[in-house]
């Protein structure tokens, strides 16, 4: 494995593709058995597929968690432990906050019969603050299950804290990653328009 990641990324992607294809094949076989009425208690083929799928998921997702632990370690060594922790918590916060804010904003504007222009630059709504904090606390406290592709957030943070990798004064940058785009507002409006199309189609 090279530090550049070139000798690591290719086999990693190949493994992901192979796992996805095997899992897809298992689902297709299971669906075929179900449609044909062969998903029966006394059918050994059905029980083989069910048992193999459970074992396959446990083994592959366990390997996936190990890969994510190594990826976390490389990220922390490159950018510092605290930067990694802040970034991970930021991703978790946004994954919880955005659906809550977007849902409230879409409902509000649709009731007012006003267009929805940008769901990605909303101020924090005090009405969802309690639910947002509750979901964040639950996400940070939850335990890793045998079917998780990543370790639980608190486990990832604990491992990185033990590394004690200092911040790099050269790499430390508090600017949002969105600032890397030349026209972030145009991108936000485009993504909002695509999201609204899906909402309209869903009814």
* DSSP summary, beta strand count: 0
What percentage of the residues does DSSP assign to strands (E)?
A: under 5%
What global shape is seen? extended
Poorly predicted regions: 1-9
Rg for CA atoms: 22 Å
Q: What does the main sheet amount to?
A: none
Please state the average pLDDT score.
Answer: 81
- The assigned structural class equals mainly alpha
Count of helical regions: 6
As a percent range, the share of helical residues equals 55-70%
Give the SSE order as H and E letters: HHHHHH
Tell me the count of domains. Answer: 1
Distance between the ends: 49 Å
Short key terms for the protein model shown above:
203 residues, disordered N terminus, extended, mainly alpha, 69% helix
Structure characterization notes:
The protein is mostly helical and 203 residues long. It has one domain (6-176). It contains six helices and no strands. The chain has helices at 6-35, 44-79, 81-111, 129-141, 153-163, 184-202. Helix 2 packs across helix 3 and helix 3 (81-111) packs antiparallel against helix 4. The protein starts with 5 loop residues before the first helix and ends with a helix. Mean pLDDT is 81; it is low at 1-9.
In short:
The protein contains six helices and no strands. With 203 residues, it is mainly alpha-helical.
């Amino acid at each position: 494995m090279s530090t550049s990641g070139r000798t690591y990324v290719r086999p990693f992607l190949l493994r992901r593709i192979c796992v996805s294809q095997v899992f897809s094949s298992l689902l297709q076989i299971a669906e075929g058995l179900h449609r044909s009425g062969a998903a029966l208690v006394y059918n050994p083929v059905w029980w083989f597929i069910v048992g193999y799928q459970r074992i396959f998921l446990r083994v592959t997702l366990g390997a996936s968690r190990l890969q994510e632990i190594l990826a976390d370690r490389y990220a922390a060594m490159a950018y510092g432990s605290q930067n990694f922790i802040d970034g991970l918590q930021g991703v978790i916060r946004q994954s919880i906050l955005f659906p809550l804010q977007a849902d409230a904003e879409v409902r509000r504007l649709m009731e007012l019969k006003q267009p929805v222009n940008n769901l990605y630059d909303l101020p924090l709504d005090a009405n969802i603050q309690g639910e947002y904090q509750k979901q964040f606390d639950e996400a940070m406290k939850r335990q890793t299950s045998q079917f998780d592709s990543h370790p639980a957030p608190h486990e990832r943070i604990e491992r990185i804290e033990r590394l004690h990798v200092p911040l790099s004064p050269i790499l430390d940058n508090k600017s949002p990653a969105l600032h890397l785009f030349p026209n972030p507002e145009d991108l936000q409006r485009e993504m909002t328009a695509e999201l609204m199309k899906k909402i309209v189609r869903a009814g």
